[in-house]
Amino acid sequence: MNEHKIKKYYITLTVVNLVIALIFTFLPSELEISERVKTAVQVNIVFHGAYQGISRFFIWVFELISKDNPNNFTFHIKFFIGFAFVMMILPFLSAVFIFKSVIFEQEYQNLFNLIFLSGMVLGGYSMKSKFKDKLTPRTTS
């Protein structure tokens, strides 16, 4: 999957995030409307922060490391690709515990964490694809 498709998924998840936040805001609840709006905005910010942070921060760290030590270029890229896989796998494991708390303890507000986790998975995938691009040599034609 290329960066263009990842951006498409990011936009789609952003729209889903906004729809869920609007539904949560206007559903009847024991929380005041200001608390519901605040929670919806916080979830939206955390989603974008997770995606943007993971997909960009580690590229910046890599560039700092490779500037100081260019000899281990391939090792650094492979390390960060492995880290990207971890960043994609851990949210799935967390989702299991979220569903457990929702099913057995009826804590439905924990479903909001799935939005944050989707941002982590997408950010990890974006990071992995950027590092794979750095690993494959480019040919000029």
Helix/strand structural class: mainly alpha
The separation of the N and C termini measures 23 Å
H/I helix tally:
4
Low-pLDDT runs of 5+ residues are: none
Largest sheet report: none
Q: Percentage of helical residues?
A: over 70%
Q: Kindly provide the radius of gyration, computed on alpha-carbon positions and rounded to a whole number of angstroms.
A: 18 Å
Order of helices and strands: HHHH
Total domains: 1
Spatial shape: elongated
Number of strands: 0
Amount of beta strand: under 5%
Keywords: Membrane, Transmembrane, Transmembrane helix
Transmembrane segments: 9-27, 47-65, 77-99, 111-127
Structure description:
The chain crosses the membrane at residues 9-27, 47-65, 77-99, 111-127. With 141 residues, the protein is mainly alpha-helical. The protein has one domain (3-135). The protein is built from four helices and no strands. The protein starts with a helix and ends in a 6-residue tail after the last helix. The relative contact order is 0.16. The model has no long low-confidence stretch (mean pLDDT 86).
